[in-house]
C-alpha cells in the first residue's frame, strides 16, 4: 500500500460511527513499551537506534493485527508524508519531527498503529470511532500479549513498565477520548469541565495531543497518572467521567436550541455558507466553521449533510492532505485557495459521494 | 394606485440602467419653491398649512408628469407607509417625520415626485437611473415651468427664489448623484475624494441625504451652494467632477483585481455566501454585504446574479418594505429573520424572476 491510497479511504476515527458518535469522535489507548536488552533512546547512539528499529520492525510486521498492514520507515519519508501521517493520527508529531531510525506500522483500517523509536522504543496505539474504550482495551491487550511472547520488555517488579519519561512509568498506558464540545465552548461552560477534570488528575489536550491547541472545539481527555493504579482502574476513571461530559454537552446543546434556536441556526448556517463560498480559507478557520457545521448536523439544523462527510472535510482540508490530493507542493496562500476550492466542490456535490 | 402595488415594480433608481450604471446609481435634481401668497412654513399656522396643501395638491395632480400619478396625504398614512416612501426615495425623512397637512405626488415610474409642505411649500424632484443629469434638468425645468404658469413663486429680482432656509435661496436647486464606491472605500482612497469635493464646495452625504450615514458604500455627491451661480453652472460643476470619481473608482477596482484578485474574489464570494445562508441579518449588514456583491457582479466575479436583482434586494430588505411584503408589523428580531428568509429565497431562485 502507498500512502496516497489512504486519501480515498476513511480512517477509523473519521467513520463517524460507534456509541455517542455525535460527541465522541474516537476512543484511544496507547501503551509505552521498551525492550529490556537496549538502553532508552536518550542514551542510544545511532547504531543502537537502528538495531532497535530493525528488531521491532521484524516483530511488528509479523503480528496478526487484522487485515492488511503497512510499515513505513519515517526517515525515508518526505516531510509532507510525515505530516500526512500526523494528520491521520497514525503517528505523533514527535515521531515525525524526530531523527534517526524510526518507523510506524499500521493497519489498513487505521485502527492500530505501532510507532517504533518515538519517545520509547515502542508505542502501541489502538483507536475506535465513538466511545468504545473496552474494545480498545481488549484489542491492545491482545497485541501487547502477542508482542510479549516475542520480546522482553523493560519491566520492574515494583515499578512496572519502565519508560523513557517518568510520567509513563508503571502501566505505560494513556487512555484518551477525543470529544467535540462546541456547545460547552460557546457557553464557556467548558471551563468548569476543565476544572473538574484537573481535580481528578485528568488532562485536557488539543486534537494533536500534548502541547497542541484545541482547534474546532475538539478536546482530548486523558489520564495523566500511569503509576500506582492498574490499567483497569485508569480506564474506569475515564469511562466514568466521559458520560458526564457527554450529557453536559447534550444538555447545553438542548438549552441553546430551546433558548436561542434562531441565533444558533444562524451561526451554523453562516458557517456552512462560508465554507460553500470562500475562495481562500485557512486551516484554522476551516476547523472552526466545520465544528459549527458538525454541531448543526447533529442538531438537525443542517439537513443536507452527513457526519462522515464533515469528518472527511476535517481530514482532507489539512495541509498535507491537500497537497497530496493536488499532487504538488503548495505554499500557504495556494493551500488556502486549494482548501476553499476543495470545500466548495465537496459541499456542492450530492451526499452519496462520501467515499470518493 | 395603492402603495403596496409599488412593491412589485422597480422604481426608477432601482432599474440599474443608464450611463455608468455600474457606479452611478441615480442622478437627481430637486428644486425648492414657495408660493408668494403664503408665509414660509415656519410662520404658518395649521390652517395656513392646510390651505397651502390644498392649493398645491390641486395644481400638482393636474400637471402632465408622464404616466399615471398618485397623490398621498402624508398625514393620513401610517408610520410604516411613510417609511416605505422614504425607503423608495419618494419622500424625505423630514416630510415623513413632520406634522400637519403635507403630501406627495409622484409618477408610477417613480422618476418624478413633488413634496408639499416639506421644508418649503414645494419640493420638485426628478430622478434618473445612471448618470443622466441633463435629462433630469430638462424634465424638472419643464415641470417647474408648467407650475409657474399656474402659481406665483416667491421670487426676488436680486436674490432669486426665496426659500425657508437661506442655504437654498437663489436657484433653490440641489443637484445630486448617488454613487456606489466600494473600491475607494476598501482602499480608503475615498478620503481623498471627500477632501477634493470639499474644496470645490460639493457635499458628500449618505443614501438618505442630509445627516444620514453612508451605508453600503453609497454616497450622494451634491452642491452646497445655491446662490450666485446659475442652475447651469451648478449642474456643470457636478457634471465635471462625477466622471473623475467614476474613473477613479474604476481604476482602483482594476488595480484590486490585478493585485489582489483572490482576496477580492474571496471577500465578494463570502458576502454572497452569507446572504444566501444567514438565518438572521440586520439591515446594516445586508447593505454592507450587498455592496460587496454588487461590485462582484460588476467585476465579473459573480456570474449568476444581475444588477437589477441586487438593487431589488437593497430596496426590499429595508424595514418598511419587509413589513409590507409580510403584511404585518415586525419587531427588529423578526425583521432580521424575515430579511434573511427573503434573501435566501431570492438568491436561491433563477435569475429570470427579477420582476416578481
Task: Provide a concise account of the structure shown.
With 356 residues, chain A is an alpha+beta fold.
Helix and strand topology:
Two copies of one chain form a homodimer.
Chain A: E1 24-33, H1 46-60, E2 69-73, H2 79-87, H3 93-97, E3 103-107, E4 112-116, E5 122-129, H4 133-148, E6 155-156, E7 160-161, E8 173-180, H5 182-186, H6 190-199, E9 202-205, E10 218-223, H7 231-277, H8 283-298, H9 307-316, H10 319-326, H11 332-348
Antiparallel strand pairs in A: 1-5, 1-8, 2-3, 3-4, 4-5, 6-7, 8-10, 9-10
Helix pairs in contact in A: 2-10, 7-8, 8-9, 10-11
Description:
The structure is a homodimer of 356-residue chains. By secondary structure, chain A is of the alpha+beta class. Chain A folds into two domains: 229 residues, Creatine Kinase, Chain A, domain 2 (2-Layer Sandwich); 100 residues, no CATH class. Chain A contains eleven helices and ten strands. In chain A, strands 2-3-4-5-1-8-10-9 form an eight-stranded antiparallel beta sheet, covered by helices on one side. A two-stranded antiparallel ribbon of chain A has the order 6-7. In chain A, helix 2 packs across helix 10 and helix 7 packs across helix 8. The longest helix of chain A has 47 residues. The C terminus of chain A is likely disordered. Chains A and B meet through helix 7 and helix 11 of A and helix 7 and helix 11 of B.
